[in-house]
């Protein structure tokens, strides 16, 4: 799937504007971003990295889980990623234990699974993926999703707290 240069430039512009707003804001948290808001689902997120916000899009906003969804994430690297490890937890809102918890290596030495593996400090990385569920589960619940990515030196590359609300 090819991206047009204007798509990437728009995402970079949004990231720069958010970074500039952050410098002048008194709020210690990044803004809450609404990625999707439909009759069926609402998705919001906030960067939990104290130094950097990230850009995230979900297009189109699905009415059903079986709809085809294009996901895009972008950020400016503050450290290189020769190795990258991800961790995510899915919580039913208000519960004390996650219902799903997974740690997974994304980039390992001599085994780059993704094209962003080996990216250097200062580069803009864009991750694109597609998703389509095989079943349309009739969910009516709120979920909290915590995502973190750490490089080979233990440096936080990305951190996101998201809320998925199924109406």
From TrEMBL:
The keyword Lyase does not apply. Residues 1-25 form the signal peptide. Keywords: Signal. InterPro entries: LY86 (IPR039945), ML_dom (IPR003172). The keyword Signal applies. Residues 45-164 form the MD-2-related lipid-recognition domain. GO terms for biological process: innate immune response; positive regulation of lipopolysaccharide-mediated signaling pathway. It comes from the Eukaryota. This is Lymphocyte antigen 86. It comes from Cyprinus carpio carpio. The lineage of its organism: Eukaryota, Metazoa, Chordata, Craniata, Vertebrata.
């Amino acid at each position: 799937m090819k991206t047009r240069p204007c798509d990437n430039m728009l995402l970079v512009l949004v990231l720069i504007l958010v970074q500039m707003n952050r410098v002048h804001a008194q709020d210690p948290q990044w803004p809450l971003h609404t990625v999707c808001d439909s009759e069926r689902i609402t998705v919001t997120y906030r960067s939990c990295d104290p130094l950097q916000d990230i850009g995230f899009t979900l297009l189109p906003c699905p009415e059903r889980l079986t709809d085809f969804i294009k996901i895009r994430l972008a950020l400016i690297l503050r450290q290189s990623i020769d190795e990258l490890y991800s961790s995510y937890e899915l919580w039913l809102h208000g519960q004390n234990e996650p219902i799903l918890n997974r740690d997974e290596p994304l980039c390992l030495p001599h085994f780059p699974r993704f094209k962003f593996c080996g990216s250097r400090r200062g580069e803009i990385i864009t991750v694109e993926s597609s998703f389509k569920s095989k079943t349309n589960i009739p969910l009516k619940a709120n979920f909290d999703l915590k995502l973190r990515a750490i490089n080979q030196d233990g440096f936080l590359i990305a951190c996101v707290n998201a809320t998925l609300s199924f109406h």
